[in-house]
Amino acid sequence: xxxxxxxxxxxxxxNIVLLIILIYGRFFxxxxxxxxxxxxxxxxxxxxxxxxxxxxxxxxxxxxTKLNKGLIVRNENGDTISIKNLFSKPSLVLxxxxxxxQSCVDIILKxxxxxxxxxxxxxxxxxxxxxxxxxxQFKRINSVHMPIFNIWALELPPDTLNVPYIFLIDxxxxxxNVFIPEQxxxxxxxxxxxxxxxxLKNM
Length: 203
Description:
By secondary structure, the chain is of the alpha/beta class.
């Protein structure tokens, strides 16, 4: 009887040890491929956080910046227009370049064009493109019916990031509420546009 009890106790102890080993292995044992994947995930997270901080810095340093009155844009016919004449009233500005991530531009444009608060009267699209053919194709693909003006540099800090961004501008050419969306973040873009629509009414 004693022997049987000892055997049962021994089996229980072995089962507990085996369970601990399995749990330990599940959470702490890793195969040869996992360290690289974990390292990659950590690097991605670090880069994402750094990018967020970077974007915030560029947004903050761009706010309340007055655009140089000497800047010149070109319309779709190639005619030159002084930027001081272009910004005659408060407007929402989409700034992009043909060199930007195309899907990033598309998602902003899609959200903007589907928002009925914005139209040719209160919205300006300032792009950069080298060939007119690019513009025609871009407008056709994205069903853009408002004019797109061409300018190499606005001289705002985000221009150096090679990403599209949005901001509000008053009739004194002062930029406000500069917003650089994260890639694919359509919710943040829609929220910004909702805010911008209300802000424009009071500018």
